[in-house]
Model the fold of this input.
Amino acid sequence: MASNYRQQIEKFKTSFDGDFGNVIEIGGGSNPTKVKCESYNNLEYPEFDLNKALPPIHASRGCYDTLFCWNVMEYVYDPCQAFRWFNQLLNGRTGILYVNFPYFYPHHDPKGMDYLRYTDDFIIKLCKIFNFEIIGLKEIESTPATKVFMNQIISNEGMHLRKDLRGHYTHPIGYILKARKK
Done:
């Protein structure tokens, strides 16, 4: 059975409709978005290493209308470099980016390659730095039992939530970003 985290990502994918134009998907694992969207004009599954520098000339620069990046960002040790890739691959002022970010998720395989977890503040900062307008930043919600458990951990450890979150923090386990290239 898929985790709550993955189930919510798959549910989000079922909301897709419309024409995505020329599409590129980075990652996607065993359940790529292609099976969720039938309106692709041109779908590519490239072998990009988002941790590596951009090559000086790349044939695909600026030619994609939509970029999907699912279940990848925890393996990226330099998210700024990944966002440089996203910016270069998408069409200017019209390119749409979909990417998910884990926030509360256990270390998992492959060992030695699971690097980062992301806050909403950091995702917003990445978008500002790399000229993406946020269309939506959806929380991947934790289960009710997890919310109770997380509140207990915060209390037991003597930790404090940011003042604006106290009393209504939802304890997201991740985020799904939809953004437009400016």
